[in-house]
Structure formats: C-alpha cells, structure tokens
Amino acid sequence: MRTRSYRARRTRPAERAVVVLAAAGTLLAPPAAFAADQPSTAADLRADVNRDGRVDVAGGTDTAGEDGWSVGRGAVMLPNIDDDSGRCPVTGPGGRPLSDAALARCNDAADTKVNGATDAADLARVRSVPMPQVPAGAEGRLTLTAGAKHARVFVRRGDGWEPVTSRTRLSRAELRAGAEFGVEARDVIRDSAKWDGRARIKLTVTSGAGTTTDQVTLRVAPLLTHHHLQNAQQLMVTKISGNDQYARLNRVFREGLEKEARKAGITKPLVNFTKYGDIWAQDFVEPAYVGMAGPDGRMHSMRVMLRSAQPYREAGRELFEKLRGRNVGVVQVTGVRDSEEETLNSTGNMETIPPYAHGGRSFPAGRVIMGERKDTGSKPAKAMRTLLKSQGLQDPLLLDTSWLHVGHVDEFVQFLPADTPRGWRLGVADPEAGIRLLREAEQAGHGATKMFSVPGGPRETIAQALADRSLLADNDLAARRIEANLEVLKRETGVTDAEIVRVPALYTRGTQARTADGDGKMPLPRLTRMGAELPDVARDHGQQRDLRAAPAVQTSAYVPGAVNGIVLSRDQYLAPRQWGPVIAGKDIFTQAVTRAYTGAGMKVAYLDDWNTYHLGMGEVHCGTNTLRDVSGAWWKR
Q1: What superfamily in CATH does domain 224-514+522-628 come from?
Q2: pTM of the complete model beyond 0.85
Q3: Where are the domains of the chain?
Q4: For 362-401, what is each residue's pLDDT tens digit?
Q5: What is the tens place of the pLDDT at every residue in 285-303?
Q6: Helix 469-493 vs helix 431-441: angle between axes, to the nearest 10 degrees?
Q7: Which CATH fold would you assign to the domain 45-80+123-220?
Q8: In the sheet where 572-576 sits, what is the strand order?
Q9: CB neighbours (10 Å) of residue 194?
C-alpha cells in the first residue's frame, strides 16, 4: 500500500537510473521497462509476490496483492533454522551433553548476522524501486509493522549485510539507486492463533518535500511433510554396532535395504543413526521441508527434521547432532502433556495423503493423517496437531487406530503413485483377503501346512490358526475398523473403490508379559506366545516402551504387514518378507501381495524384518525413514 503526502513529479523511463543487481537466492528484474506512470519520488517497496524468483522493480508483476497473501500468490520468506556454517555446538563445556532446549536454540536465525553466501541464499529479497528524483536531504527508514518478533530484515551494503534496526537510515544515494533487503523468519509457525506467519515491512521516505510510504507483506513458508509422489532420494535407518545376534541381523537388514535402494535408482548412501540405539527410525522424526522461489523460479528449499513429540526419546537429539547443517534444520515441539499417549506421538503415526482437491477444499501439498483412539479419546499431542494445522496447507485428518496396539496409521494404510487422473491410489491392509487365503489353502488339503515358513518360527498350522476363535475375531475387528476408516478417506478425498488397492493381511491380539523390572506388563504380539523371542532393543524404545493397558481388544500384524513398507519410486515398492505358508514351493502370502501391487503398476521386492522389527510390532517402514525430492513448488498441484 503506497501513500505520499506531496505531489511527485513523473519522469520518463530514460531519466531513471538503471541498476541491475543479481542477488543470491533471487534475481532482480532490470528496470529498463519501468512503468511510465510510476512517480519517481514515491516510496515503492517490492517483493517476489508472483513467486517467479525475481523481484520486479521495472514492471507491475509484483504489485498486485503485495499487501496480502494466499496459497497461490504472495511473497514467501524461509524460517532460517538451518546451520549453514556449522557453527552450532552439539556439546557443552567438557563435552557435556547440551539440553534439548539448548540444542534447539541455535540456528542461523538465532543471531543478527548473515553467515556467508549460503545463509544469504536463505533470505527472501525485498527491493525499493529506485527514486532518481528524490530531493536532497531525503532519508529512508524501514520498519516491521507486523511480525517484528518473528522476522528479521537485513540491508545489503557493499558486499555485506547489516541488520536493520530502529537506527538504520537509508541515504539519498541508496534511495536513488534502490536498496536491497533480505528477510528471514526466525521460526516456523507454531500456533497461528499467536502468530499467523506474516511480516509486514514498511518503507518511509522523508524529505523537505514531505513523507511517502509503502509496505509489502511476506509470510513464512509452511512446514510441509513429504508425500509419495515426491521421489525418494535417500533412506535413513538405525545402525546397531557390535557383534551380538541383533547387531548381525541389523547389519544384514541394512545391507539389504541399501541394495534395494540402489536397484530403485537411489544413489545416495544410507543415513545411519548410530548414537542412541532406537531402532524405530520412522518414529522419532518426520522429514519435512520449507521452500520459496529461488533464481529463475527454481525452488530454494530447506529440509526440516520434525522431531517426534516425545520429550523422553533421546534419539531425536541425533537430528541436531548429526543432520542439522547446510539447508537442514530441526523443529521440536514443546508443551507436550504427560497425559498424552506416547505411542500416538511417534511419527510413524504421521503419514501424508498426496495432493488432491475435493468437496471445495484443495490440498496442493497433500494432507497429513494421524491415528487417534476413539475408544478412549486419546489423540496425538495437541502441540503437534496445532503446529501442523497452523501451516495452513495440510490440516491433519484423524483416523481411528483404537484397534491397534501401537496405534499408527502406517500399520494399515498407504498411498501409491499411479498413472491416473488423480495421480495416486490408496493401499490398504485387507484382513478378509488374508483369512480367505488360509481357508482356500485348508479346503485344498493344506491345513497341516505351517502358518509361517520362517526358520525357527512358530509351529502353528493353517488349520490351527483357523480354529482359533480369537484370531478370527481379531481380523473381523480389523476389517470393520479399516472399512470405517476407508469411508472417512473416501468422504474426505473423493477416492473411489476402483482406486483402492487391497493387500492381504492378518492381525492378532497381544498377550501380556512382565516388564524387565517386574513393575508392570506390556502387550506382546501373539507370536511370542508361540515361541518367538522379542528383541531387547524392541522393548527399550518406541513401540513397546509405553503401551498402555487397553480397555478393549487391540491387535498388531500377524503375518508381516505388507502395507508397512517403503515406496522407493513411482513403480517400485519394498515390502517386509511375508514368511507365510509355503504350498507347492510358493509362499501364498507373497504371491497374493505381489499380485495386489503388480495390479497397481508397482514392482514389489521383499526384505526380511522378522527378527529385526516384526516381532517388536513393526515392519520395514517402522525401522526406516525417507528423504524425498523437494524441488516442486508446494503451491502448485
């Protein structure tokens, strides 16, 4: 919004100074085509409102809507929460551990410096239009009229950047040439009721002829979670050192994971978490990102590791200690209540529907789903739900996971890339199909075949499994709850039955076992009752750490949950090895699962996770995590 308290003389374009500047992060359009009717003595502030990576000081492409902001238009600034120069300490004096709060306090926005060219690239550019006719004695002043506590402005002078303070003044020479500013947000939006993410910058030019002002609005880029239409670029997993049995199994798993990643075209090596021994790499971090238009309209993005809302979980510290750095930041929520159920706060309970529009609502960057326990009213941490909703793009949708011990959405639903108008299909566990496989095998005379073909595994037969009323009841429960969740997903997204990929699955209720200290009980999968051994590392972290006594039946995967795998590329999927009944030399669950994914256009590979994750009530997906491509503009579908 431009104001002035005097009449400014209009000048011809030829009379105006021509200044062409190229700034890291955003290119500045040359003023050769400057609008002829623009008063050269009126303050005029410009930002990249149309998100083409250029601050247009010559024409009018960045003027309409400069005072507002919408998903499709408006200037964007980044939360400058990475550590481009690697200056943030990860230990205190004498190598003592820093507190979580101290780890989180340090980032590039925590000081009043621009820490090198890489840090400068994270600044959103704002320009004042050159004022060649500004009267002698004129000076300019820049103020933040909104968002002053949450944003910071720098002015470029020579080869450096200086923070704009209440004492900063722009000289007549700077006003004549046009000044360049860099803007950073100091954090992501935590709660839109407290800060909506906007910063309003006002330029005031004062001279003997009067005062003229203009202002522009920027909003911090939303923090967004990945979806499966973004190509996988790197996988993360926990490395267990040593030479004990689990360490050896973990090594075999990681080798197999890296092999399958390479086959899918993922060339970057695995990121190995090594410090805290938490094997559930899916559950202590949700990889996310922020982005704004950079040079030539290409996205300038920053990865942001969203730490799970589990203050006790030490593994989240490694995000600061190992991953934070150039173009990688970390966000951890605070204010998590002791009464909020820890397992629901694992980030394995946070998945993302790919982009869609339905029922008058559009989600160009996808939409978060999380599990809640409707039976008890238990929900994921309010602080996390508030943060996600406050971004304004991925409003979390809650699904009912009351019927699952661990309670994570990744245990029964996934989203698969597809060459369809929608661009994706919905994959879902199908317990009815799993029971049907067993009944067909029994009717064909294979009732005496062992349920599991894993060496040293449970001895239960197909006939014994089908004779177990609890197992049948468990899968009837799972099927009903999954169908209810499907109705929610169909209503919210418009997905049709023809777009649903049903993947055979089986679930089973747990039994109770004493904890190591003898003070309580923990739910264990029914497999442990049949001779399988639960790994110690599975007891110590995540899934098993704080499972509360359930008022009703809760289940976990009986046969390794095929939907709980990794989408490696648009047509390649990695599932947990099924270890189902082998008939005529073929694993009948592997055959059925392969058919389901092949029918959806996916090539499926299998990785054994029986002893590494399955016995601990998780699968391949639970033990890994994925960094995906962030080069796309989040405001476009």
Answers
A1: L-arginine/glycine Amidinotransferase; Chain A (3.75.10.10)
A2: yes
A3: 45-80+123-220, 224-514+522-628
A4: 999 999 999 999 999 999 999 999 999 999 999 999 999 9
A5: 999 999 999 987 899 999 9
A6: 140
A7: Immunoglobulin-like (2.60.40)
A8: 566-567, 572-576, 603-607
A9: 10
